[in-house]
Amino acid sequence: MGCIASRRASALIASRAFWGVSSILPSRHAAAKSAGVRLREDRGLTQEELASRAGTTFGTVSRTAKSAPAWATVRAIATALGVALDELAAAIEAEETATPSA
Question: In terms of residue numbers, what domain contains 13?
């Protein structure tokens, strides 16, 4: 059962709509950005430190706040944050629920 939930979370996070790229879901991208910042700050990491841990560049990490990241980037950042993909999806969905729509 955990494997199925993990696959669903993976598919959800990998979808461009999940990141708010679609004009229908701009709040999702804002929620993803907020959740990512919160998870990073909770771990006391700067964007530079997160990039180093994720094996990517500062620019790549910075761009995730502006557009849908590549799937490999999402996995690398989740690993660097020490969270499973389903935890990342839950954090983003919780942030979206907590953030009132404009």
Answer: 2-98
What tens digit of pLDDT does each residue of 11-67 get?
555 554 444 444 435 566 677 788 888 889 999 999 899 999 999 999 988 888 777
Separation between Cα atoms, residue 16 and residue 86, nearest integer Å: 16
Residue with tokens 């761009």: 63
What's the one-letter identity of residue 7?
A: R
Q: Is the pTM of this model over 0.70?
A: no
Residue 22 is encoded by which pair of tokens?
């679609």
Write the CATH number for 49: 1.10.260.40
